[in-house]
Amino acid sequence: MRISKRITATGIAALAIAAGTLAIATPASAATYGGQCGSGYSVVNQKTISGKGTVFLTYNNSNGYNCVVTVRNSTGSAVPMMAAIAKSSDPAWYAMDEGSYTSYAGPVYRSAKGSCVTWGGAISGTYAGGENTNCG
To answer: Rounded to whole angstroms, how far apart are CA atoms 71 and 115?
Structure first.
């Protein structure tokens, strides 16, 4: 009986694909970096914040600064957000922007040429980031 159910389910899926009626779930629009850190900054790392947005780590080659910005997948009512950065040698977050925002938190900056950075962001209590990354 299990074999026939599997074959039937497979056959229905094949027919739906052939008929062009199989619905495929599309993911919610993902957050994109929009230049919030300013000119000269390029994204060097990023982490998805579980269906809510993305935290971006950027770097400016000309001045040796890193920048972090946390961006929501879609704008809406203000929610608690955070963007933060520190060099590995810092005892705590060097720079942090925390509050209720409709689209993004940050930017926050840290001079980190030749150093590793710890960086992250949060949206509505969900955190993502990196620890001691992007060294050099």
So the answer is: 25
pTM of the model: 0.79
* Residue-wise pLDDT tens digits, 1-13: 334 333 333 343 3
Q: How far is CA 127 from CA 29, 54, 59, 112, 120, in A?
A: 19, 10, 21, 22, 7
pLDDT tens digit sequence for 60-104: 999 999 999 999 999 999 999 999 999 989 999 999 999 999 999
Domains and CATH numbers, the chain: 41-131 (2.60.40)
- Give dist(CA 62, CA 81) in Å, integer: 29
Rounded to 5 degrees, φ, ψ at 2 are -60, -40
- CA dist., res. 62 & res. 44, Å (int): 15
